[in-house]
Structure formats: C-alpha cells, structure tokens
Amino acid sequence: MKWEQLLSAGRADFKKKSKASQEQYRSEFERDYDRIIFSAPFRNLQDKTQVFPLPELDFVHTRLTHSLEVSSVGRSLGKSAGEYLLEKYPELNQRGVGSSDIGAIVAAAALTHDIGNPPFGHAGEDAISDFFKFHPSGQVWKTHLRKDEWEDMINFEGNAQGFRMLVDKDNGLQVCYATLAAFTKYPRPALIDQRDPDRRSQKKFGFFSNHLGVYQQLADMLGLSLSGQNSWHRHPLAFLVEAADDICYSIIDLEDGCTLGLVQLEEAIPLLAEIIGDKFQEEKLNSLKSSAQKLAILRAMAIGKLVEETVATFRLYEEAMLKGEFDQALTDCIPSADALEKITKLSVKKIYRSQPVLEKEAAGFQVLEGLLEVFSTALYNQYYDTQNFSGKDKSILRLLPETFKMNKEMQMPYILLRNLIDFISGMTDKYALSLYRKVKGIALPGT
Fold first, then answer.
1. What is the pLDDT of residues 45-83, one digit of tens each?
2. What are the HD domain coordinates in residue numbering (predicted)?
3. What pLDDT does 410 receive?
4. Long-range Cβ pairs for the range 128-133 (8 Å, 24+)
5. 39 in helix, strand or coil?
6. Distance (Å, whole) CA 427 – CA 424
7. pTM
8. What is the DSSP letter of 95?
C-alpha cells in the first residue's frame, strides 16, 4: 500500500463518476465532515444510548456527544500523525496533501463510527441478531436467503450498517474513498472461509454481503491489499479511528460512572493518575472545589497523554501497516495499555453491569424483538404466506416510512429485510419504545 493512493480525495459514488469540488475554502475531506454533521442519521444519535439510560438530572453521554468527542480526538491523532507522514514522504506535500487533510479524514471517519448502531446500545445489535437466530418469526426467513445473506441476519453488526448508510445514495453522504476506508475497521463480510483471531481487523465484519462488490471497488481505488479471500488489510488511518474511540469510551465512560455515583472519585483518581504520570499533581487537584472540576482536568490530561502515546506508536508501526504486517489495536501497544485495562475491568464490574445499564439492555431486547416480530410477520404474510395476510398486517405496513418502497426489487427477501432493519436500527431509543407500545396496544397515540 502507498500513501499517495491511500489518501485519494475521490468521492465514493460507485454508480457514476464524481467530479471534484471547485470550492477553495474546504477540502474534499472537510466537506465529508460537514455532510455528516448535517445528515439525519447523525442527528438521530442525539437520542441513542451510549452506555447509560438518559437521566433527568445528571449529564451523561449519548451516541451524539460521544461521536463528537471521538471525532475531536481523531482530528488530533490525524493531524499529528500527518505531520510525521509529510516529513517522511515529501511527495505527499507536492501533491497538495497537508496534515490538516489527514486530520480531517480521521475526524470525519470517527464522526460516523457509531452511525450504524441501533437503539439501546450494543444490546440492540444482539437483539436484532437473536431475533433471526431464535425467534420463530425470524427463522421463517432462513429458507428464502442465501447462506451469506442469512449470516448477515444472525450477526447484525453496527459497523456494517454504518458502511451501508455511508454508501447509500438516499442518505446523500457518499464520502471520499479515504474517509470510507478509514471508517471500515473490519474490512470483510460476515461469511469468510476462515477468520484469523490474531488479526484485529477480523474480530468483526465491516460490510454486508450485498456490499462486497462495493468494497472491492474501494480497495482497488486505494490499493488496499488482500489479507485472505474476501478480506483486506486495514487502511492505516483506520487504526487511528479505532484508537480515538478506545480512548474516549475508556476515559469518558469512567467519568460518567463517577457522575452517576457508580464509581467513587477515590477509585478513579489513581487510575487516571497512572496514565498522566509525572504531570499529575495531587496538591493542585485537591485545590479544586468540586468533583466535576477534578474529573474534567483529569480527563483532559489523560486523553492528552493517550493521544501522544498513540501517535508515537503509530509512527513505530506505520511501515508495518502499509505492508499489512501490523494488525492490533494501537491502544493495546501504548505504554498506558495496562492502565487502560484496569479502567476496563473496573468499568465492566461497576458500570457496564450496573442495574440501570442491565435494565436498559433488557428493555432493548424486548422492544426490538417486538418491533421486528410485528413488521417482519406482516411483510412475510404479504409476500410468502398470502393466505394469512390480515387487516392487522395491512395496518402495520402502513406505518413503514415513505422511503420503504414496495417495488419489484424490494420484494426480494434479503432487500426487504435489509430495508426493515434500516428502519428499526435507525430509530432513537425513545421512538422505538413509543412505537413498540403502540403496535403492541400498550399505549394509544397521544398517550
């Protein structure tokens, strides 16, 4: 892989040739960021759970605020790494590439890293998968799908859903090739011959089976090399996008846990101090009046230190990334990796398994299973079990959005289900709960 090709500003509209913008005040990668900010899928993240149910009094992070913070950290990582790359590869400068361009690529990709996540956090992903694995109304579709299509259904993946949204013509995003590749942390479909557990890029999958051809085109455009059949080596900037997310959720979930009283400040301080190192000043920290102030300064210093360590590690392994020889999370290789692991263990024990989080997850399973059952049954009866297509089914299908077009292509079972999952996974937590109550007869409109 070569940086000159990897940083292509071409736009990912795979159905027609895209023309470069004539704008002088924004680069193509900055345009990506702006398109995402103003898009409906991104706005919907404001009412999607990050970890905690949204409380009435204390501020905790939503998917929207988390994504903005990840993007901010990503820009810092990208710009700093970009300065190194421009010094090492002066030909990039000659091609008009600046460190701010590389920062903009990582920032835009990081901004969208959760755009495909369903309501109710990661429990929502499991709920969609489990519906097709275990629920009778989900299993009836199996005989109508190919093996690779069924694999997509029983392993719903937010990263693949995000890829779908970024290349979907109706969303109007169509980001640059480099941004799309940096977004794709797991460049493979769900079904491959053999998954290599030692490769971080194969831990999950990054696109659904019907987008395999699209990713092949993307890989050809950017010169991404194969790591196996239907799987590729990561774009090097994808490691920075992943690191930005790892840094933010590790530190900020801990901060939220303290805000909600699930973790004591006295437990968090030594963990963050271990990352901050010599710059940690206990006397100065004690001079601050509130716990919120103490958490804010510790969070800022810890993130700053992790950014420095991550960029240094990126420099160390950059050549190995180009050769496809490095395939680990950067935050597993930095000096503070052990400290982050301690934070993760505490977060699992006291935050991710706390009563509010477990209750939210249980509700998510119930709500998404209920919505999928009602809508998928109505679609199945309409096309495959017409003798049981009832008035109830007709009423349910009228609740589908106008964009859910019942044309000939849509009647293909995989396309039907893909669009149904688009509808349900795109919901906010509150809308999903509200619609579930209504279609189940638990609540009436206006109540």
1. 876 665 545 554 455 667 788 889 999 999 999 999 999
2. 63-250
3. 58
4. 128/156, 128/368, 128/372, 128/421, 128/424, 128/425, 129/153, 129/154, 129/155, 129/156, 130/365, 130/369, 131/368, 131/369, 131/372, 131/373, 131/376
5. coil
6. 5
7. 0.89
8. T
- Using alpha carbons only, how large is the chain's radius of gyration in Å? 23
Per-residue model confidence as pLDDT tens digits over 159-193: 999 999 898 776 667 888 999 999 999 999 999 88
Residue type, 406: M
| 150, 413 Cβ separation under 8 angstroms | no
Q: What single-letter DSSP state applies at residue 234? A: P
Of 236, 240, 198, the closest CA to residue 324 belongs to 236
Tokens representing 170 are 């109706």
> What architecture does CATH give domain 3-117+157-233?
Orthogonal Bundle (1.10)
Contacts of 131 (CB under 8 A, 6+ apart): 137, 138, 368, 369, 372, 373, 376
List the CATH code of the domain at 238-355: 1.10.3410.10
Q: 54, 211, 179, 60: which is closest to 113 by C-alpha? A: 179
Q: How many CB atoms lie within 10 A of CB 148?
A: 17
Tokens 């206006």 belong to which residue?
446
Query: What is the residue whose two structure tokens read 């997310």?
Result: 245
Which sequence spans correspond to the domains of the chain?
A: 3-117+157-233, 119-155+359-447, 238-355
Q: How far is CA 286 from the centre of its chain?
A: 37
Contact 75, 103 (CB under 8 A): yes
pLDDT at 361: 81
* 119-155+359-447: CATH, from 3.40.50.1110, 1.20.1090.10, 3.40.50.300, 1.10.3550.10: 1.10.3550.10
CA 201/CA 185 separation, integer angstroms: 6
121-134 helix and 355-383 helix, angle to the nearest 10 degrees:
40
